[in-house]
Specification:
mainly alpha, 8 helices, 77% helix, elongated, disordered C terminus
């Protein structure tokens, strides 16, 4: 097996280990990755090795179901938090480029999206110290508001505008805000704690 192929197999296995609960990663993660690589280097057929490794990983996921669900939900929240940030840049650029020809509330939408994505990533980092619990309260209030406002924007836009209309953007903004809010609230519920579960560094890097 070539070093390049070996590296791809090892990386794929490391990525799967990263989806397992943090407690399992801390205790066994590096040792498992090392053993997997050693077996490949020793000439173990990749298919046979994967046939043994995958059932073991799924067994870990199943035995730690609640922790796994919470971990994956937080990973999803970290990834989807990029969407409001990107959309905020787009909306802000439109507001600047078409200055004077856009509604006055459009820049506020850009700021709101920036706040939603940025604050969520900050909250997920778990590094707010003594402000962490207060930030959690703010996170809940903000996400509930985003869910209600985003859902209302989607409903109103769908009812009043033609989907082919180039100004159909509000429904996209509403969907992004509401979807982010829903996943954020689910992540908090899955953590079963009042502080961000990612103080264990489970946010994707």
């Amino acid at each position: 097996m070539t070093p390049e192929s070996l590296g791809k197999h090892r990386l794929a296995y490391r990525r799967l280990i990263a989806l397992s609960p943090r407690s399992h990663q801390d205790r066994f993660g590096e040792a498992q990755v090392t053993l997997f690589g050693d077996l490949l280097e020793s000439g173990e057929p990749p298919l046979r090795l994967w046939a043994r490794a995958l059932p073991d990983l799924f067994r870990v996921y199943k035995e730690n179901k609640e922790e796994t669900v919470g971990h994956l939900t937080r990973l999803a929240l970290g990834v989807i938090s990029i969407a409001p940030l990107v959309l905020a840049v787009v909306v802000g650029w439109v507001a600047i480029d078409e200055f004077g020809d856009v509604p006055g509330w459009l820049p506020l939408v850009a700021v709101a999206l920036l706040a939603q994505g940025g604050f969520t990533l900050l909250w997920l980092s778990g590094r707010l110290g003594r402000w962490q619990r207060l930030a959690t309260d703010g996170f809940v209030v903000g996400e509930v508001a985003a869910l209600l406002i985003g859902g209302l924007a989607v409903a109103m836009t769908a009812a009043t505008q033609n989907p082919a209309d180039p100004e159909y953007g509000p429904i996209l903004v509403g969907m992004v805000a509401a979807t982010h809010a829903l996943i954020g609230l689910l992540a908090l519920l899955a953590s079963d704690r009042s502080v961000p579960p990612t103080t264990d560094r489970s946010v994707p890097h």
